[in-house]
Amino acid sequence: MEMEASSTSPASGGTQAHSYPPLRSRAFHKFTQQNLPACKAQLTPAWVITIFLVTGVVFIPAGLIFICASESVVEIVDRYDIECVPESYRSNKVAYIKDNSISKNCKRLIKVPKHMKAPIYVYYELDNYYQNHRRYIKSRCDKQLLHGLKYKKTSLCVPEEYNNGLPIVPCGLVAWSLFNDSYSFIRETVNMKVNRKNIAWMSDREHKFGRNVYPFNFQNGSLIGGGKLDPNVPLSDQEDLIVWMRTSALPKFRKLYGVIEEDLEADEIIEVHLVNNYNTYSFGGKKRLVLTTKNWLGGKNNFLGVAYMVTGAFCIFLSILFALIHVKNPRPHGDASHLYWNRKSNAN
User: Fold this and answer.
1) Mean pLDDT in the chain?
2) CA of 41: how far to CAs of 38, 179, 219, in Å?
């Protein structure tokens, strides 16, 4: 490529040739001009049929493996938000949950369907709860969670920014609506221990919630949104709050409550004593208690396996379809020698 150009100099009254600077010269490198050697696959019918067939043969067994792994997870799901409301309040659940004079204690019996090997994870599941709503999810102050009262710019926390003229720590609607149902488990008259340590992400505990930040003026207003926090425990150790503050993207979600570190045998009856404090009745929400095991693939979810199997079956279907079309209506292949890069090499 020509690297010289002409320019007119007023002093000389004529033209003067000069070279572009080195940076301009480097701009015409082979990479920028797409002159690097390349390999372009020629997708003949045989190659296309083979690719789809191999993909299907690999994906279908992989999907079966994923489904078997998912089915090996033992999961118990118990919805309790309706059953734990007294019969006389079934028609007005909101009045029940707002009346502090009514006991919120509830007992549930759950049967273990199969042997559950420890650790057994205890989750609470909420449905029709939009933690991803813009006004809700923005009502928090991450810098205040880390620095406490030292950080003053908490306007994002409105309407839970101040109470009685004093700042709230932690502020915002997300913290204010902290889930506050509690669960305890009895096995043959013996209380089962639920480990509630290390249920939050380590990165959240160490880097997002201050070790010297303590709850202040929290849930002291006339309208109580959810659970209360111990003012003598730093936020970095309040793992219930840390788990809750990691908001969900979907209206149906689970959050870790604790871990049972002992096996449960098949057909055992576990007595669950819970306190039904959290108000999901005002917006038609649902509450469930979940006990589940895990394996190398995670929890119980057949989506990945089904997706692999459907994709594999579709690929095999396409391979058969293309094979039939190729046999019935074959087309002559193009002559690769007519491709310009082959013509160029032949000319040389």
Assistant:
1) 88
2) 10, 57, 66
